[in-house]
Design brief:
Number of strands: 8
Order of helices and strands: HEEHHHHHEEEEEEHHHHH
Distance between the termini: 62 Å
Helix content: 40-55%
Strand content: 15-25%
Shape: elongated
Structural class: alpha+beta
Strand order of the largest sheet: 1-2-6-5-4-3-7
Radius of gyration: 23 Å
Length: about 280
């Protein structure tokens, strides 16, 4: 079993090291987080009084191990007197702690995005503006996104819940939400280096991108073989940007993006193929 500190650090690696750009056909949500958001996602608001273990102090208490997995149960039993209430609160907290590690998968595979209309779920005190939902065979992950004060289109995580497929109310958080947006792609950008990478792309979005590449190559009289198209798609995904003809022609700039041997090999393979196709008779 992971410690509370290990869960905090793993969640921080996913949510705080990177910014995420969630693309739909109608809008792009810029998701950015700091470590002070994590205690709430872990369920620490149910401990103590007045959100004592959330925000700055919550992050400090976890990092200094002032609150641990062992003390979570003690605090719940201290502040909730009824045994049934204790059981439900502990189950709620552990559903969060046991599943936060799946956030990485949530961002890199198929999920759904809902506009959270608070009036539609009158029994919920959920305060998010959007709800990101990821479903697999056993469970449903729900990540709430709320508008940030940093600027238009900027959001941060403010809630995390897990329901299981055999729960009676497994879809309670989104069953009445009418506005659903298909996610076309998710771009992850490392904060320190600003390096971007596409970590999820829908089949429909990839097909549109493929079609655009074919048209671009045809206009430049370049043979659009499957191998070349796939090479350009890999470049676009690895570096999180659509490479126009001008970008593809700039060998120095392409190599300048590389930070390791695998990326250099990817670019060199493309450049060799590009040179071959450019010289091929039409």
């Amino acid at each position: 079993m992971q410690t509370l500190l290990e869960i905090f650090q793993d969640t921080k690696e996913v949510l705080c090291r990177y910014d995420y750009y969630i693309h739909t056909q109608k809008r792009i949500l810029h998701l950015t987080n700091s470590e002070v958001k994590i205690p709430h996602l872990m369920g620490m608001q149910y401990l103590g009084k007045g959100n004592q273990f959330t925000g700055d102090f919550g992050a400090y208490a976890i990092k200094k191990q002032r609150v641990t997995m062992q003390s979570v149960e003690k605090l719940v039993r201290k502040y909730y007197k009824a045994e049934e209430k204790q059981r439900r609160i502990l189950e709620l907290i552990h559903r969060k702690l046991d599943n936060l590690w799946e956030l990485r998968e949530m961002f890199s595979s198929y999920s759904r995005l809902y506009l959270y209309e608070k009036g539609q779920n009158i029994d919920s005190d959920f305060q998010s503006d959007y709800l990101l939902v990821h479903e697999n065979e056993r469970k449903i992950l729900h990540l709430g996104l709320v508008r940030s004060e940093r600027g238009k289109g900027c959001y941060h995580c403010n809630s995390f819940m897990t329901t299981y497929q055999n729960d009676r109310d497994r879809d309670a958080f989104f069953r009445n939400l009418q506005h659903r947006y298909e996610i076309t792609r998710i771009v992850r950008e490392e904060k320190a280096t600003k390096r971007a990478e596409v970590i999820y792309q829908s089949k429909e979005a990839e097909q549109r991108e493929r079609s655009g590449i074919e048209k671009m190559l045809a206009a430049a009289d370049v043979q659009a073989g499957e191998k070349l198209i796939k090479a350009i798609l890999r470049l676009n995904k690895k570096f999180g940007t659509y490479h126009t003809l001008e970008l593809l022609e700039d060998k120095e700039a392409l190599m300048g993006k590389c930070t390791d041997k695998r990326e250099k090999a990817l670019v060199k393979d493309f450049l060799a193929l590009w040179e071959e196709k450019r010289k091929a008779p039409q």
